[in-house]
Structures are given as structure tokens and as C-alpha cells.
Amino acid sequence: QVQLVESGGGLVQAGGSLRLSCAASGIIVSINVMGWYRQAPGKQRELVASVTSGGSTNYADSVKGRFTISRDNAKRTVYLQMNSLKPEDTAVYYCNVPQGTWYDYWGQGTQVTVSS
After folding, report:
1. Tens-place pLDDT, residues 5-15
2. Torsion angle, alpha carbons of 116, 42, 77, 8, to 10
3. In a 3-state reduction of DSSP, which class is residue 90?
């Protein structure tokens, strides 16, 4: 069974930081692209950041300058460093690993709550 195991979520004060991690395991996982989505109650799931195996990154405008995505290819792990957190960042964050055009693997989601 392919798994994306997420960790690092929690409750923080505005202005604080969290670091999310997502480790991929399983026999058929392509990790050319790894990324993070988030979904707040009543809102659509949105792409937060993604990174390719070659290090190319993409960020949502709302998190540019505050969040940094990185990866460790040897560990098959993607990270999301979240600084200067705002209450608007409160959401469930999901690790995402697309498999070409046919399928996406998803993590179970980790809750990030930022208090005022």
C-alpha cells in the first residue's frame, strides 16, 4: 500500500512557525513532483506549494515570502516551512504526489490552526 505520512501540524499563535513533513512510502510512487494543498471549512482545496525533483518551486501568492517548500529526495520526503503564520492560514494541509495525468496520491491531512 502506498502511503504519504504527514506530520508537523498543530496550534500556533499568529506570527509563529510550523514545519510540515510528508514521507512517501510504497513500491510504485513517483515523486517527480511533490506538493502541499490546504482546505479550510467551506472553501475549495487550493494548491499551496509544489516542488519538482529538480528543485523547481511554485507558490500560491498568499504564501509567497512566508512559506518555503523543500524536499529530500533520498528520504522521499517533502517539507513545508511556514513562517509568519496568519489566522487565514488555518486549514487542513494535505500532501500531494501526482502520478502523471492518471492519479494523485494524498496524505491523510494535518490540521494547522493559527490563533489571533
Report:
1. 999 999 999 99
2. 30
3. coil
Nearest one of 68, 78, 89 to 13, comparing CA atoms: 89
Distances (CA, A) of 90 to 24, 38, 66, 76: 24, 9, 14, 26
Using an 8 Å Cβ cutoff, are 75 and 19 in contact? no
Which residues, including other chains, have CB under 8 Å from residue 14's CB and lie 6 or more apart? 85, 86, 87, 114, 115, 116
**76, 4 in Cβ contact below 8 A?**
no
**pLDDT attached to residue 28:** 63
Q: What is the C-alpha to C-alpha distance for residues 44 and 46, in angstroms, rounded to an integer?
A: 6
Are the C-beta atoms of residues 67 and 82 closer than 8 Å to each other? yes
At position 65, the amino acid (one-letter code) is G
Mean pLDDT calculated for residue range 80-107: 95
pLDDT reported for residue 12: 98
